[in-house]
Amino acid sequence: MNVNELKTTAQLAMLDIPDPEKLAQAFSEMLDNFSKMMAVDVEGLEPTTHALAQGNRLREDVPRGTDESEAVLDRAPEREDRFFKIPNVL
Amino acid sequence: MTLLKSWDRVLADVQSRTEYQNYVTAWESKIRSMLTFDLNRDRFGAQDGPLANIPFAVKDNIAVRDFNLTCGSRILENLVSPYTATAVERLQAAGARVVGKTNLDEFGMGSSTDNSALAQTNNPWNVNAVPGGSSGGSAAAVAAGLVPFALGSDTGGSVRQPAAFCGCFGLKPTYGTVSRFGLVAYASSLEVIGVLSRGVDTLETVYDIIAGRDDRDQSSVARPQNSPARGTARVGILRQIAELSPAIDAAYRETIEKVKSLGVEIVEIDIPALEYVVPAYYTIATAEASANLARYTGIRYGHRTSDDSSMEQMVAASRNEGFGDEVKLRILLGTYVLRSGFQDQYYIRAQKIRTAIRNGFDAAFGQVDLMLTPVFPTQAFLRGEGELTPFQQKLADKFTAAANLAGIPALTVPIGVTDGLPTAMQLLAPDFAEHRMFDFARRMGVDMAAMTPDGFDEGWRK
Amino acid sequence: MYQSFIGLEIHIHLLTRTKAFCGCTAEFGAPPNTHVCPVCLGYPGVLPAVNEEAMKMSYMVAKALNCELSPKCYFDRKNYFYPDMTKNYQISQFHDPVGRNGYFDVEVDGEIKRVRIHDVHLEEDAGKMIHSGRTSLLDYNRAGTSLLEIVTEPDLVTGKDAEAFIREFRRMVRHLGVCDGNMEEGSLRCDANVSINLKGQGLGTKTEVKNLNSARFVRKALEYEIKRQGRVLGKGEKVIQETRLWDSDNNVTASMRTKEKAHDYRYFPEPDMPPFCPDDAFMSEVVSRVVELPLVKKQRYLNGLQLSVDAAEFLVEDRLFCDLFEETCALGGDAKQISNWLCGDVQGQLKRAEVALTDSHITAARLNELVKLVDSGVLQRGKAKEVLELVIAEDKDPSAVVREKGFEQVQDDSQLDGWVSEAIDKNPQAVEQILAGNTKTISFLVGQVMRFSKGKADPKKVTDKLSQALGL
Ligand SMILES: [Mg+2]
Ligand SMILES: [Zn+2]
Description:
heterotrimer; B: 462 residues; alpha/beta; Amidase signature (AS) enzymes; eleven-stranded mixed beta sheet; 14 helices; 35% helix; globular; C: 472 residues; alpha+beta; Arc Repressor Mutant, subunit A; 3 domains; nine-stranded mixed beta sheet; three-stranded antiparallel beta sheet; 15 helices; binds magnesium ion; binds zinc ion
């Protein structure tokens, strides 16, 4: 497992890994285990994407009516008036 | 129901509440199973109902309004849930009251509860042993008699393995029969809320209350009108079972003899795809986890770093400070197996193997009514020397994770005590055949009175 | 020479009452973070629950765009981090969208162009950000609202084609009632992919143009971009694949110059929602709600009903006018005449009164009555405007207004004959002039009769009677 791959992956996952070498071993160990799957003949098998799905679940288009906005704004690490506040994105 | 009845007075009068509080406090100093214990916080329990005044504990990755929802993680250490999970609401409507939130491996990732960033939970049978995980806090609390039942969550064995380690029953229901609304997602397509208890009757009562289709969880399923037959005439065992510890190996053989003595036929079953349970399970679980844990950024709730030099830096640093190593490892693995160019070889292949495993169980349940396997290759392991490495712990998930990949129900049944620690076996059943497992567990006649850790005292609740 | 290829990615906000996956109101314009809940804020433990109406509207659009409708569609997670997206994955459709392989006909300069549709998929919108100084502020009212994305094949050639596409598409979604089509407010958004290449060489390197918040800007931006790419290739350089923003103040596109970042959406099936397989009841409702599309309607109005191009264009622009027109015609009136009323007086009065057709109290029955009153001579054409005004302002039937205001024209022959004789008797000079051949003077006598009748005589009838009496 090359450390650069790990860094790219960490970037995609928005993780700032201070010591990628340290993680690399545990990572490779698992990836080697995953590679065992290559031995299986999966010809003709459909992937299971949804276990036991009973389809056609739809929600009626009716507003729920309770106001939870104060409760969630209260939990913001930083807020300004009714906004969630973060460092400038631009 | 009789078991539940004896708890009636616990929350009803001041005297018994004080005794209860003292009992829990004494145990908690030894095992630290709960992140919160509060007799007064749950204001939502109905005054009557089949579980009126029955206290219960909830794994701290299941939302209960006004209680913390830490998931055992620094990143959610200070989050108070603004809402309640459907399963908990159903229990509250039946009169039960949440008294505690239990410790767990961070976001359910682990088999020892030692991956909790917030506390170390000990096994009530031996405080030097782990309680198992990730629902280790729930298992320890139940085993010590702090609550008659607790909710856990089972993604790859997280209810059954700690139940086995602590000597209690642990149910992983059929995928979707219990709403996941309010269960903090680790691996959505695999996990389900489960129940831990020292009694099958309690387990059954609780399961019947929390099961059912939920409009807030569109992946939830209704149990069929005609539930599967409850009787068991044939039990399947896997042809190849290797690498069991001597105590578990003995318990396994003993259980097979016990089953035969009940007049039940034992049938050997072959499911070759089970050899790939661990890689398939960890591929799917980490892939889903990488998306499920992307929401923790310190923007809307949860831990936020003091480093606000840029938005990216703020998010990356908050995640870096908030997540433990095991969580980071799994997020990275999951991100990797989903990357374009790698998906076919990992994620999609794992989903196909999952289909093969499911097909294997379907075929097996054409021949037998239940399957019997060990839960975990070892008893609760001690901390320190001889401890299983994190990698070995993952490899040992093979018996439990199979049920999550297939979606079928499974039950941990305590068997006995060897060297001061419990042993247990697992029953597996076809979809919706939970009651068949309950009945068979009753037939196995486990003597729970002989399975109490030192200091377990039922006197205080009479 | 060069050939250009334009493909569009259109996002429309569906007119559902609630958001796509939670019960929050989807209304716009509320104070920041009013319409938010644990679900749309991506709280730990919550689950999405797909909105039935959003699903219906999605299938309606896919059907109207002649797509193959998915017998089993499901959602996927599209993974990328951005603060306006609460879960840091967007619930979208990738592997099996609502519709694929459709087409849409657009009229450009009187010719029909068929544009292939790649796919139609349902997804959720993100929140809004306001940037100020060192901080950005987040408002998640819009987060999780239903967004339908329509992706065309690169079948459009010119900016004009693209503009026509957008206008026709906008008209279509408004007719279906699935989107208000407002581009300035962002309920219909359009991004364009454009590339040029030497004829016969297929697609070139494309750029993506964003920030196109009107149909006109779509045309102008694409015309600019095609020219710009031509200049780049002409100099022997290569077009850089990038995103460019339309700058409507300076009429140019400019590179966004985002820093290069690893970028991989890692789509995988959303495990929280099972696949959706439309059943017969669902499909028949979808089919019944896909009304006649504007372009087809317009052709029917022109060729079948012989309406003028202006009238047909005017009506087709608004589904409500079409409905009123067709309902009124069904009451037996003359289509041409009704269409003239609608794009003439009705439209004018509504504009003046600043009233929307829905709030105007104008119904097919009332419009039909008004036309009949004028037609039969009971109401003077000139007074009809006033009647219409009162119908709108006071919610009354035209006949009631005419009665109250005493607008009925006198139809009684003997009374009219009396006034005609009186006018002739009292104005011998005028009569003389008329008989001498100055027939225009007859209008003077008509005016006299109108005075006697206090304006209630029917001028046309009076003219006839005068001509008859004078032997003209
Ligand atoms: Mg999109
Ligand atoms: Zn919401």
